[in-house]
Amino acid sequence: MNKVSREPRPFLDFIGTVWAMRRAKIGVVITGLICVTAAVGPHLAPFTATEFVDMPNSLHISGALFGTDYMGQDVWSRFLMGGGSILFLGAVSTAIGVLGGAMLGVVAAYVKGSLNSIIMRTFDIVIAFPGILWALLLLSMMGTSNWLIILAIVISTVPRVGRIIYGAAVAVVEKDFVSAATAIGESRMRIVFREVLPNVTSTLLVETNLRFTYSIGGIASLAFLGFTSDPTGANWGTMVQENSSAIILQPWGTILPVFAIALLTIGTGLIGDAFSRVSAGIDRGRND
Amino acid sequence: MRILKFVLRRLAFGLGALIAISAAIFLVTQGLPADPAKTILGRDATPESLAALRSVLHLDRSLFSQYWEWLTNVARGNFGTSFTTQMPISSYLGERFSNSLFLMIVSSAISIPFALLLGGYMALRRDSLFDSAGSFTSLVFAAMPEFVMGTGLIVVFATTVFHWFPAVVYLEEDASAWSDPKGVILPIATLVMGCIPYVSRTMRASMIEVLESDYIEMARLKGVSERKVLLRHAFPNALGPVFQVSALNIAYVVGGAVIVERLFNFPGVGSALTEAIRSRDLPVIQFLSLLIGSVYVITNLVADVATVLVTPRLRTTLP
Amino acid sequence: MTSGLRIKNLRLNVEGSGEDIVDEINLTIEPGKVLALVGESGSGKTTVGLAVLGHARRGVVVVHGEIHCGEREILSLDDENKRKVRGDLVSYVPQDPASSLNPALRIGVQLVETLEAHDFGGSDSARRDRVREMMSEVLLPTDEDYLRRYPHQLSGGQQQRVGLAMAFACRPSVIVLDEPTTGLDVSTQEHVLATIRQLTREHGVAALYITHDLAVVADLADEVAVMYAGRVVERGLVKDIFMRPSHPYTRHLVDAAPDIAGKKKVIGLSGRAPAPGKRPSGCAFALRCEMVSDECLSTFPVEVVVNDSQKARCIKVGKVVRSIFTASDEASTRVQGSPILDLRGVDAGYAGVKVVHDVSLTIRKGECLALVGESGSGKTTVSRAIGGLHREWSGSMNFKGVELAKGSRQRSTENRLAIQYVFQNPYGSLNPRRTIGDSIIRPLAIGGQSKSEAKRAVFEVLDQVNLPAAYATKFPDQLSGGERQRVAIARALVSKPEVLVCDEVTSALDVLVQAAIIDLLDDLRKNLGLAMLFVTHNLPLVRSIADEVAVMSEGRIVEFGSAESVIGDPQQEYTRSLISATPSIERSMR
Predict the structure, then answer these.
(1) Distance (Å, rounded) from C-alpha C426 to C-alpha A2?
(2) CB contact under 8 A, A262 and B152
(3) What is the maximal distance between C-alpha atoms in chain B?
(4) pLDDT (tens digit, 9 = 90+) per residue, C350-384?
(5) What residue ranges do the domains of chain A occupy?
(6) What's the distance, Cα to Cα, between the start and end of chain A in Å?
(7) Contacts of C87 in chain B (CB under 8 A)
């Protein structure tokens, strides 16, 4: 129970407990596999993404194990190259979105008054309309550069993370140690950063992971709909859309990318689930 | 009586949210650099025709007055005319809306009761094989984006493994969705598989919390039969949080099912909006956005009111 | 004996391990009698109580034992028969009435439910009559409108009475009450105890009353069993246990219990009871016992018979001496300290609603003023206003000649540090993500002190609260409740305050720990010349720490004076009724 002998490091203990769960290990392995494929893939691809190899939508081609796609390009090569941008955009948009949402959520919880209302009402309004539609509006009006795609995902992420962190932060703000900090004259900023924020980290970890899963899904979905910064380049999302009409002739063009996206989101989902179970256990145990 | 005041207040807030959303949509579509007139007439349009079109469409007025005009029209029931088809919007979008409504009703009717029972049972048999397997499956389905799930279903049931269903929905112009029952099965299945994980997970967590509570222990210690403990004490108290999640899922189908509609070629509101966005048909964009926003607002309102009605503590302490 | 309650050789383990939670439990209760099961938190008393109903919480298993309620043995019953017995033959009154009632069902429905589950009365109308009968027995209204209420529409005392009604509904032979008056006001507690006494005697019910409050035990119980670390270490008649305790732990408990009529000084005991799994093979109390010898550490003592009814598990039975502190163990020739904080005509409220009216107090240097009252009296609001945590007040607060600003942020640094506040809940007043040292050092760091000087101050203050310097690098969840409260006090002391506001600082602590903290506060007050405001609802505690007392009710000060005169010779009706409703060991022994 209470390890009186050594000095505990709460964060590392948390990670250790998470790692001990089987689903976390499976999730890490799966996610790692896909990430490695996406990162290393481009260097292993036998052909380039746009190189014409043989007749479109044909199988049984020597040198191309999974056949050609709708433009005669090598499915296997495009598959190996198709994950990088999704992962990169997913990571960046998650990082920005979670950071922004967490800051706003914590500030709203601590400050109360009109700032709180403004922040929370804005969240409600953004969430009241499907995220994908905000993204479609933005991207079709303003273009599909990488930064705009990131912005579209961030718009979806910030209010949702903000709401969750707000809920967690409100519980912390009620606690006596925050009042104690106010009583000794701590500045508001310090209280937000040193008292409140560190006590919502377990929620934050869970949300980060969840949002990463959704960001990847969202970016792939947008690519599927044709909203990507490089329309001809290799991208798992666009591949699904491009090759789905020929699925009866050439299933691999669709199956490989679908499989990859599924595995990636499942992997991150498993890790996130492990996080949430451990943090729920910790939070429950702390209620003495 | 207090409930009525509560409903009215939430309604007022919902209306406010709708206005804010429509204003935001207006801003995004017309306040941005892209010129709708140019998009409609194409790049080769002459400056004179562009100017003429702009004045016809009132695009030369200030943003605020355009918005105000639109808002007052909507309040009067005049939803505008589509740029592309030149027809009044309300007439030809009715079919799309009823199709989406059909999807919404059928998929919700299937998924929500099933998810409630599933989640409740998983909580009862907590940590059993059923629970672990169920949680894992639920996780898998929740994490995957819809187009992945939909494509997977197509691959398995339509094209590659089995050939039971068509891969897309073949509907003629103005035909309604239920005239092709076989075709709508896969889209509905995709939506159902996307909805069940969330609702069942929320129900499971809520049920577990209830089952751990003091009053459940007390009911058992009074000698109440296990069946009564579950049906009368546990289940009703676990439903509270479920309303919100259900509302979100229900509302999603109407507008957020853009991906599913595209994948299966389903003629619903989501794909209508996508098309309108592509062709810069501003009145249609604005109208459909309002419609989708209204669906969200109404379902959230119903969920909030239901939550209050079902929780006596909230019901009796309404301000 | 074929009635009453008999527990034989009961043992429960932690599921999945061989560790015992409770063991060798042997108790007998005759019909109509009340046996108090006393112990601190973690002693296993709730586990025993639930076992009497054949129930064990998650992670707990019955290893062996027999429990006879009347003629039936409970532990060997199958699930369906256990269900039949619960509420009918043996029933349970839980600790927290608010959370034990289904918030979504009307109380009438929940009352009838017990009767329906056991088919009491045979018909719906007979059951309705019985419900009305039950409600009048516990002095609650019997009309339809009241029965249609939801639990949250009842007060805490009313909820507890509903719980009692449900427990007595099917006329059980045995009843287990688990700390049923915790959290209730003293006046409500008096009524509830009277109801329990009356119902058990009238219906010949054997009652097992679980509690940590010795004064209640003295008032209500016929016999006592004391539990420590999962074993019953002493049992016997109430008078014997209190006047001639045989086990050292019992003696410490009696010495630590505050008493409104008897002695003044409370004596604490440091250390903690070993948790399940960490219990030694010898006597579990040995390491804290002043009479410990090698023999004690090797084998667990068996029960020694002291007299007809008294048994204790100690090899040194007969050598325990009860320390009796009567009044005036302290010289009453005290020079009254000079006033340091003066309140005049203070009103305070929440969101425009006034809850404190026209309060005037004087706190003197080197003295402790106790602010007592029941819940809702406004005492916490006043103390928070003084501490700068509550800003909605008006009136005058004069500190050393200067008017205090309303919030702590608005006060000068000097004033902010001079008045320090210690919170009630030791589990919420320390940031779980910071080490103890970090939490304590903050006021100094803000004040701009050099790091080395601040560090020295931290060690100095840890020493003052009797905590080892090594604790500075620990995290709060490694400490016990009492230790955390000491840290909270240390944090308040580090800025060298002149006024210390203690808001119910011992309410969440066990009685031995509470006594140690009271001791500490008293010493600090004397050594550092602190002016102390001690807020509490625990009237008996006041005698052990306060020089002066102010009694509050409904936002006003009802009576004020020296501790001796207010408690010993109260002038106001409210004070008098409060004191007479407070159970006292001394009074019950006469």
Answers:
(1) 17
(2) yes
(3) 86
(4) 988 999 999 999 999 999 999 999 888 999 999 99
(5) 18-43+63-83+235-283, 85-199+218-233
(6) 14
(7) 221-224
Q: Which residue has the tokens 């009103």?
A: C347
Predicted confidence (pLDDT) per residue in C252-281, tens digit: 999 899 888 866 788 888 888 888 888 888
A136 and B258 in contact by Cβ < 8 A? yes
Residue A76: how many CA atoms within 13 Å on its side-chain side?
Answer: 16
- Say if C5-97+172-312 and C339-589 have the same CATH topology: yes
What is the residue whose two structure tokens read 């439903």? B239
For residues C63 and C45, what is the distance between their CA atoms, to the nearest angstrom?
16
Give the residue-averaged pLDDT of B3-18: 86
Query: Where do we find the tokens 């009296």?
Result: C377
B206 touches chain C (CB under 8 A): no
| B194 neighbourhood in chain A, CB within 8 Å | none
Of C424, C428, C446, the CB nearest to A185: C446
pTM: 0.85
Choices 1.10.3720.10, 3.40.50.10260, 3.40.50.2300, 1.10.20.10: CATH for A85-199+218-233: 1.10.3720.10
Cβ atoms C399, C374 nearer than 8 A? no
Domain positions in chain C: 5-97+172-312, 339-589
Rounded to whole angstroms, how far apart are CA atoms B8 and B226? Answer: 41
Question: Is the C-alpha dihedral spanning C453, C457, C463, C468 positive or negative?
Answer: negative
pLDDT at res. C330: 54
- Per residue in C413-453, pLDDT (tens digit) is 888 889 999 999 988 899 998 999 999 998 888 878 888 88
Q: What is the DSSP string of C112-140?
A: HHHHHHTT-SSSHHHHHHHHHHHHHHTT-
Q: Is the pLDDT of residue B172 over 70?
A: no
Phi then psi dihedrals of residue C35, to 5 deg: -110, 125
Question: Where is C164: in which H helix or E strand?
Answer: helix C156-168
What does the pLDDT read at residue C7? Answer: 94
- Identify the helix (H) or strand (E) that includes residue B255: helix B242-255
Indicate the DSSP class of residue B60: T
Directed axis angle between helix C107-117 and helix C124-137, to 10°?
120
Specify the CATH number for C339-589; select among 3.40.50.970, 3.40.50.2000, 3.40.1010.20, 3.40.50.300.
3.40.50.300
Distance of CA C278 to the CA centre of its chain: 25
C416 contacts in chain A (CB < 8 Å): 183-185
Task: Name which of B275, B272, B269, B266 is nearest B168 in CA terms.
Answer: B266
Name the maximum alpha-carbon separation found in chain C: 80
> How many angstroms separate the CA atoms of A246 and B151, rounded?
13
Count of alpha carbons within 13 angstroms of residue C28, beta-carbon side: 9
- What is the mean predicted confidence (pLDDT) over C568-584? 91
Amino acid letter, A149: I
Cβ contacts of B52 within 8 Å, gap of 6 or more: none
Strand partners, C257: none
C50 by DSSP, 3-state: which?
Answer: helix
Whole-number Å distance between alpha carbons of C83 and C118? 9
Phi, psi of C30 (to 5 degrees): -85, 155
C-alpha of C230 from chain center? 19
Which CATH fold would you assign to the domain C5-97+172-312?
A: Rossmann fold (3.40.50)
**Does the beta-carbon distance from B143 to A251 stay under 8 Å?**
no
- DSSP state, residue C336: P
C98 CB-side CA count, 13 A: 10
In whole angstroms, what is the distance from residue C335 CA to residue C441 CA?
35
The dihedrals phi and psi of C228, each to the nearest 5 degrees, come to: -145, 130
Q: Which of C389, C425, C432 sits opposite A183 (nearest CB)?
A: C389
Residue B153 burial by CB count (10 A; 0-12/13-18/19+): exposed, middle or buried? buried
**Within a 10 A sphere around the Cβ of A21, how many other Cβ atoms?**
17
